[in-house]
Design a protein that fits this description.
There is one protein chain. The protein is α/β, with parallel strands linked by helices. It has two domains: about 1-15 and about 160-215, Sandwich (Immunoglobulin-like); about 20-160 and about 215-250, Rossmann fold (3-Layer(aba) Sandwich). It has seven helices and twelve strands. It has helices at about 10-20, 25-30, 30-45, 65-70, 85-95, 130-145, 220-230, and strands at about 1-10, 55-60, 75-80, 100, 115-120, 145-155, 170-175, 180-185, 190-200, 205-215, 230-235, 245-250. The strands form two sheets. It has a seven-stranded mixed β-sheet, with helices on both faces. Strands 1-10-9-8-7 form a five-stranded mixed β-sheet, with helices on one face. Helix 3 (about 30-45) crosses helix 4 (about 65-70). The protein is globular and about 60 Å long.
Length: about 250
């Protein structure tokens, strides 16, 4: 038998609070597995093992990249809009040099005490911004906040080309107790992500459906905006089908 709970399109923060945040560790295969993957990625980029840095982690979640960097001796300002995920990060960070902040990405500069040597916006966080002007604002703040040798790294999915037909259905993860499937609905500026979560309760499966918008950001456009703020830019393939963009101070 099935029971169904449906919710109209919500904001990103509402969707995470009511639907997605409690699933994050399950989706990642556990906290330590996520930290290990983050550490491997940062090591491959030459960003983990270097002299102590001031780092900003935008959309830190439960702290995969934050914890990898803090354990390597760096100081990390970790921003996220999910109190639940930040609480999990704080529990895992213990005595590490981590400052969790419940704030929007565009508010990060007001929490910085000095210029940042490394600013991260990993996962698919960047499309959580509401509009393209917000991307431009964030890039301007990043460029102003970076130190002389500072680096900005973003990974995100390329939604600029609309998917059609069965391509819009994505089997995210499943086990004997949960099944998460996404359906993507493309609009001119955004893609509406419908998360369909089946959860087993004793002999009954319950379906919860929630949807939220993600901004369609073309990688070439982001690179142009970064270059327009005086940064040198490199675009490459990122993890699990994402795009990775690295930007460096040109001075």
């Amino acid at each position: 038998m099935h029971t169904v709970a449906r919710q109209d399109v919500t904001t990103v923060a509402q969707h995470y609070a009511a639907h997605l945040a409690p699933l994050y560790e399950w989706l990642a295969g556990g906290l330590e597995a996520a930290v290990a993957r983050a550490a491997a990625e940062l090591t491959s980029l030459g960003l983990l093992h270097q002299p102590r840095c001031q780092v900003v982690d935008l959309g830190a979640g439960f702290g995969a990249h934050t914890l990898a960097l803090a354990r390597a001796g760096h100081a990390v300002l970790a921003l996220d809009t999910s109190p639940l995920l930040l609480q999990r990060l704080q529990q895992a960070a213990q005595a590490l040099a981590v400052t969790p902040v419940n704030a929007d990405l565009l508010e990060f500069a007001s929490h910085l005490q000095q210029r940042a040597d490394l600013i991260l916006c990993m996962g698919d966080t960047l499309p959580h911004l509401a509009e393209h002007s917000s991307v431009t604002r964030l890039v301007a703040q990043v460029a102003a906040a970076l130190s002389a040798q500072g680096v900005f790294v973003a990974t995100f999915r390329d939604y600029s080309q609309a998917l059609t037909g069965p391509q819009r259905f994505i089997a995210v993860k499943s086990d004997g107790q949960r099944i998460l499937t996404c359906f993507l609905e493309f609009a001119p500026e955004h893609v509406i992500v419908h998360d369909l979560l089946h959860e087993r309760h004793e002999e009954q499966w319950r379906l919860r459906v929630s949807a939220y918008p993600k901004l369609r950001i073309a990688p070439a456009t982001l690179c142009d905006v970064l270059r327009g703020h005086g940064l040198q830019v490199r675009q490459e393939a990122g993890p699990v089908g994402m795009i990775r963009v690295l930007a460096y101070r040109a001075d």
